[in-house]
Design brief:
The structure holds two protein chains of two kinds. Chain A has a single domain, classed as Cytochrome c oxidase-like, subunit I domain (Cytochrome C Oxidase, Chain A, Up-down Bundle), CATH 1.20.210. Helices cover 61% and strands 1% of the residues of chain A. Chain A is built from 19 helices and two strands. The N terminus and C terminus of chain A are likely disordered. Chain B is of the alpha+beta class. Chain B folds into two domains: 105 residues, no CATH class; 179 residues, Immunoglobulin-like (Sandwich). Chain B is elongated and about 105 Å long. The termini of chain B are far apart. The chains are: A mainly alpha, B alpha+beta. At the A-B interface, helix 5, strand 1, helix 9, helix 10 and helix 11 of A face helix 1, helix 2, helix 4, helix 5 and strand 7 of B.
Chain lengths: 628, 348
């Protein structure tokens, strides 16, 4: 509690109430906007950088979709941008195609959906929702962003070097990623990839340590773990998963650096390439895959859990109902977080791994479907008998649940090793993970932006543009990824520049064209969002302090919360965050900081008991769990 | 000129869109639109749109899945285990499509039915243990059934091959496949060493091992019908992956690690031609692990003979690698030279 006291002291000094965010008496442009230690500014830095990366990552995907959807078309008109990456006939160079696929994956998974999503919302919401003045360490938090920035600069630079960026797939499996003789992208491009990822991991760890520490230590009075909004639970679990798994990727990358630059043989053995037998012996490429997926699979949940947390919050708020099964939601997230560490080898059923391991991982993988199913059922039940307001954020959250269902259910095929034999590395897998992890998480992120934009920038985003954006994106995403199931069932392999070499894969020119057109439209629709985002930041309607009639603490801050978040003392929490439409209550929501003594008309019998405690010592209830 | 005109056109369209957006906003202000909590018309529209989306997408999904069934499914599995995995695939499909459809329809029905109405209050329904237990246990049971039937198939597929299995080696490199058959004389694949690979000795045959002398190379994968086949798979440079879509076979090729996959080819190429009604049908092998520039072009023709005898005949008609590369006789140790000449077919 000492930290909070110090902060509140600072806050009373530094806060002034004339509506400008992060206004300090001291400080200048550099300390307020660039090297700022305020969690809200850092969140916005992550968000803007994430949006920048999303545009790059999306554009790359459209480039390779042009090749796949219109293999005959001349892309000569792109020569001013792509230059030598086009063949003389005006088609995308085959190695550049692989680089596009690789960078699209790397950027989307790490830079957009890990940094852009967790970085933005963990930073923004953790202190605001648990009632803290800032993160445990503002300085580390700032470092976290700047390591990410540096990592971004390096990854971005690698797009422009003459040998091209890394091209061995986002999973960078050696030996391909270790041998520049095998693909030019494994030269300088791969070195930059590894350096960038190393810095990225540092950034993630600095952020994660902060999130965990803040959630454990800096909750306001009364905010027991069982009164935390599901967003906080999600960010908390995410940070723990990241802290335990990212170092393993760091190790994997380090050993790969050794293999590439210092002649070691961790992953290399018995290789004859470019007319020469390499001296390396005794290494195993499969080892790398184990290490990679030990991060890689938890990474799926690092990306997904925050989106699910955000969605829980938005769906409850806009259904005007408590989230159904709060404890089950927390429990399923905990279960998912634990299981996410013991399912990694389901990516490796046909890599030559011992088949007995395949059996074990099939078992564990399909178990993880149970908590995921529970989450979906709970979302649907939350909608039941609600009074649903379709804000753009709510629509995107519904979209998320829809994608999570559509994409998640195909995991039951892929997690079953025997069925996976045929489907592995086909478009079925592409469809599966783009829906369940890519699009679902992306929708969670966008939903979060629409929902918390008023608190971030003190203004409202335009609803109508939001609706257009939602419908184009929602339908677009389904049109992009749903047809891929059919393409995958036929066996079309991933990462193919073209399929015309094979009679077996000669069909589906029509579906591939549809997918490409839908991809272009979906990406274009994001321009509407970007316009809405930047326009509303300056010209949007002024936001009320609590535009969605929500219960959580962030909405008790002023319109533009300054450094320290609350001008006065931090509110005390008395109730769980989902008292929506409580029978007997005057309004259809009761914020967390309203004590039971003020709401005798709606209290449940056991809540009346709590009143005595509230009156006695407000500190005493902190340890009591909320009974529902 | 053309790009400039297009560019101007795009700018013009954007400007017009922006004007429409601004006018819309100004009209709102001019009308003095009251700030209601929720605009019911807009809200209802979204609810109707969601319902429309659900109906349209379900219709499209079922229509395409039924009408284009032939197009997106491969012909009947040409291997024994393939029929089992296909069965498992379709069982899973029925279960998932049924549960998907129910949840999908219910969810969008709820969003429609429980759309905002001014006078209604949502029901405070925070949990229900019975419901939660049901929908934890039911999926768990269904999944357990799928897991166990899956594991049975998986264990069959991955169990060791019998001693009489036809052993064939498939070697992957950027960007081509080669197959190596044990010669008909010793029926054993000879030893290889990657350090002995050169332009001609692409397998890295160790000629000090007598078993290599009658091994032969093929640029087409020939398979016997109705006999257990053990593919021994290796890669020379980077990861590749053997994918035989019609046989439901997939296994990575890993440098430094020999992998294998056993299966029984049940349908000869000729049989498959009549099944598919395509006289030009050919089995194919593809690479499914990213391996570089030519990843998409690693096609390997596959041919399943009509009978074992036919297959054996083909095998005996093939020249051994050593016969094709007689200059490599110099690497054969002196004590084996005589035998090598006979075994390789250099002596008649």
């Amino acid at each position: 509690m000492a930290t909070i006291d110090v902060h509140s002291h600072v806050a009373t000094h530094s806060h002034d109430d004339h509506g400008h965010e992060h206004e300090h008496h001291e400080g200048n442009f550099w300390t307020n906007y660039i090297f700022c230690q305020d969690h809200k500014v850092i969140a916005k830095q992550f968000l803007i950088t994430g949006i920048f990366w999303a545009v790059i990552g999306g554009t790359l995907s459209v480039l390779f979709r042009l090749q796949l959807g219109f293999p005959e078309a001349s892309l000569e008109w792109l020569r001013p941008i792509l230059g030598g990456w086009l063949t003389p006939e005006g088609k995308i160079d085959q190695e550049f195609y692989l680089a596009l696929v690789t960078m699209h994956g790397t950027i989307m998974v790490f830079f957009v959906l890990t940094a852009g999503l967790s970085g933005t919302f963990s930073n923004f919401l953790i202190p605001l929702q648990i009632g803290a003045r800032d993160m445990a360490s503002g300085f580390m938090n700032m470092l976290s962003y700047w390591f990410f920035f540096l990592s971004s600069v390096i990854m971005f630079t690698s797009l422009f070097i003459s040998t091209g960026p890394a091209g061995g797939g986002w999973t960078v499996y050696p030996p391909l990623s270790a041998l520049p003789q095998a693909i030019p992208g494994s030269g300088l491009g791969m070195t930059l990839w590894l350096v960038s990822m190393a810095l990225f991991i540092v950034s993630t760890l600095l952020g994660g340590i902060n999130y965990i520490t803040t959630v454990i230590n800096m909750r306001t009075q009364g905010m027991s773990f069982t009164k935390m909004p599901l967003t906080i639970w999600a960010f908390f679990f995410t940070a723990i998963i990241g802290l335990l798994s990212f170092p393993v990727l760091f190790g994997a990358a380090l050993l790969l650096i050794f293999d590439r630059s210092f002649g070691t043989s961790f992953y290399l053995s018995d290789i004859y390439v470019a007319g020469e037998a390499l001296p390396n012996q005794g290494g195993s490429p499969v080892l790398f895959q184990h290490l990679f997926w030990f991060l890689g699979h938890p990474e799926v949940y690092i990306v997904l859990l925050p989106a699910l947390g955000i969605t829980s919050e938005i769906i409850a708020t806009n259904s005007r109902k408590p989230i159904f099964g709060y404890k089950a939601m927390v429990g399923s997230m905990l279960f998912i977080a634990i299981l996410s560490f013991v399912v990694w080898a389901h990516h490796m059923f046909v890599t030559g791994m011992n088949p007995f391991l395949g059996s074990i991982f099939t078992l564990l993988t399909l178990i993880i479907a149970v908590p995921s199913a529970v989450k979906i059922f709970n979302y649907v039940t939350t909608l039941w008998q609600g009074n649903i307001r379709f804000t753009p954020a709510m629509l995107f959250s519904i979209g998320l649940v829809s994608f999570f269902l559509t994409g998640g259910i195909t995991g039951i095929f892929l997690g079953n090793s025997a069925v996976d034999i045929q489907l592995h590395d086909t478009y079925f897998v592409v469809a599966h993970f783009h829906l369940v992890m890519g699009s679902a998480s992306f929708f969670g992120m966008i939903a979060g932006v629409y929902h918390w934009f008023p608190k971030m920038f003190g203004r409202m985003m335009d609803d109508r543009l939001g609706y257009i954006h939602f419908w184009l994106t929602f339908v677009g995403v389904y049109l992009v990824f749903f047809p891929m199931h059919y393409i995958g069932i036929t066996g079309f392999p991933r990462r193919y520049y073209s399929w015309t070499n094979f009679e077996t894969f000669s069909g589906f020119a029509d579906l591939n064209m549809l997918v490409s057109v839908a991809a272009i439209l979906t990406l274009s629709a994001q321009a509407i969002f970007m316009f809405n985002f930047f326009y509303s930041m300056f010209r949007g309607k002024a936001a009320p302090a609590n535009p969605w009639n929500s219960t959580t603490l962030e909405w008790t801050t002023p319109r533009n919360p300054g450094h320290g978040n609350w001008p006065g003392p931090i509110p005390t929490v008395y109730r769980w965050p989902y008292d929506y439409s409580k029978p007997g209550a005057k309004e259809d929501f009761i914020p967390q900081h309203i004590p039971y003594s003020e709401t005798p008309e709606s209290n449940l019998p056991e809540e009346n008991e709590q009143i005595k405690l509230e009156l006695g010592s407000s500190g005493a209830i902190a340890g009591n769990s909320h009974q529902h | 000129m053309m790009p400039l005109a297009i560019g101007l056109g795009v700018v013009l369209v954007l400007v017009i869109l922006y004007m429409i957006f601004r006018i819309g906003r100004l009209v709102d202000v001019a009308k003095g639109k009251k700030e209601e909590e929720v605009n019911e018309t807009t809200n209802n529209n979204q609810a109707y749109l969601l319902l429309l989306f659900m109906v349209t997408s379900m219709v499209a999904f079922f229509w395409y899945s039924i009408s284009h069934y032939e197009e997106y499914t491969l012909p009947v599995a040409a291997s024994t285990h393939g029929r089992a995995t296909d069965g498992l695939f379709w069982t899973t499909m029925w279960i998932t499509v049924a549960s998907f459809s129910v949840i999908f329809i219910v969810m969008f029905w709820f969003t429609f039915k429980y759309r905002y109405q001014k006078d209604r209050k949502a029901v405070f329904f925070a949990d229900n243990h019975k419901l939660e237990i049901i929908w934890t246990v039911v999926p768990a049971i269904v999944l357990a059934l799928l897991i166990f039937s899956g594991l049975r198939v998986w264990n069959d597929i991955t169990s060791p091959a019998g001693a009489n299995a036809e052993v064939i080696e498939v070697v992957a490199q950027q960007f081509a496949w080669t197959a190596r058959y044990p010669g008909v004389k010793d029926k054993e694949l000879g030893q290889v060493n990657y350090k002995m690979i050169d332009a001609s000795n692409e397998f890295g045959l160790n000629l000090a091992d007598g078993n290599t002398h009658d091994d032969f190379k093929s640029l087409e994968l020939h398979l016997p019908p109705d006999k257990e086949i053990l593919l021994k798979i290796r890669a020379k440079d980077v990861l590749h992956s053997v994918f035989l879509p019609h046989f439901r076979v997939k296994m990575d090729a890993v440098p430094g690690l020999q992998t294998h996959f056993k299966f029984v080819a049940e349908k000869s190429t000729a049989e498959m031609r009549s099944i598919t009604g395509n006289p030009n049908f050919n089995y194919e092998m593809a690479c499914t692990e990213i391996c570089g520039k030519g990843h998409f072009s690693m096609r390997f023709p596959v041919f399943v003979h009509e009978s074992i005898e036919d297959y054996e005949k083909w095998k005996s008609s093939q020249e051994s690698w050593l016969k094709q590369n007689p200059e490599y006789m110099k690497y054969v140790p002196a004590n084996l030279k005589e035998a090598a000449m006979i075994k390789s077919g250099l002596y008649y």
